[in-house]
Design a protein that fits this description.
Elements (H helix, E strand, L loop, with lengths): L1 E7 L4 E8 L6 H4 E9 L4 H9 L12 E5 L17 H16 L4 E5 L14 H4 L3 H17 L1 H4 L1
Parallel strand pairs: 1-4, 4-5
Antiparallel strand pairs: 1-2, 2-3
Helix pairs in contact: 2-3
C-alpha cells in the first residue's frame, strides 16, 4: 500500500490522505481514503508541514505520492484575479518545498482541474467529505489518480 496525499489548493485548501494499492484486484479496491479535511489560510504552513511529515490526524506515514490540482491563469480569468495573492500557487509552492525537504524522492503529480470532475464520490466515503467543496475536490483528485494509475489501466 502506497501512502498518498491529495491537495485542492486555494485560500481554503482541501486535503485527502489515502492509501493506494496499485496491484489490487479491482480499481474500487485500490482506493483507501483515510482522512479528508479543510485547511484555513492562516493554518496553511503548519498543517501542510504536519501532513507531509506524516503527522495527520489518522495518517502516521509520510506520503510517497502527492497529487495536487494544477493552477494556471487563463485568459478569461486574468481580470478576475487582478490584485490576487494567488493562494493556489502559494499552496502548490509550499507543498513542493516541504516535499523536497522532508520526503526522499517524492512523486509530485499535477492534475488539471477538470480531471476530477470525471469521478464520483463512493457512497461509503460520504461521511469523510461532508460539508466542504474543497474536501470533496481533494477526494476526487485522489480517486481520479488511483483510477488512472491502477495496474488495469496502465498495462
Amino acid at each position: 500500500m502506497i501512502h498518498c496525499l491529495s491537495i485542492d489548493p486555494g485560500k481554503t485548501t482541501g486535503v485527502c490522505t489515502f492509501g493506494f494499492d496499485h496491484l489490487a484486484k479491482s480499481i474500487e479496491d485500490a482506493f483507501h481514503p483515510v482522512e479528508c479535511l479543510e485547511i484555513a489560510w492562516e493554518d496553511r504552513f503548519y498543517m501542510l508541514e504536519k501532513l507531509i511529515m506524516g503527522r495527520g490526524m489518522y495518517a502516521e506515514l509520510k506520503p510517497q505520492i502527492i497529487v495536487f490540482e494544477n493552477f494556471r491563469l487563463r485568459q478569461g480569468r486574468a481580470f478576475e484575479q487582478s490584485g490576487s495573492d494567488f493562494p493556489s500557487s502559494q499552496v502548490i509552492g509550499i507543498v513542493g518545498a516541504y516535499a523536497a525537504l522532508m520526503i526522499p524522492n517524492p512523486i509530485l503529480v499535477s492534475q488539471e482541474p477538470a480531471a476530477m470532475t470525471r469521478v464520483a464520490v463512493r457512497e461509503e466515503h460520504l461521511k469523510l467529505i461532508t460539508g466542504s467543496l474543497h474536501k470533496i475536490d481533494a477526494y476526487k483528485h485522489a480517486r481520479y489518480y488511483t483510477i488512472m494509475n491502477h495496474v488495469s489501466m496502465v498495462v
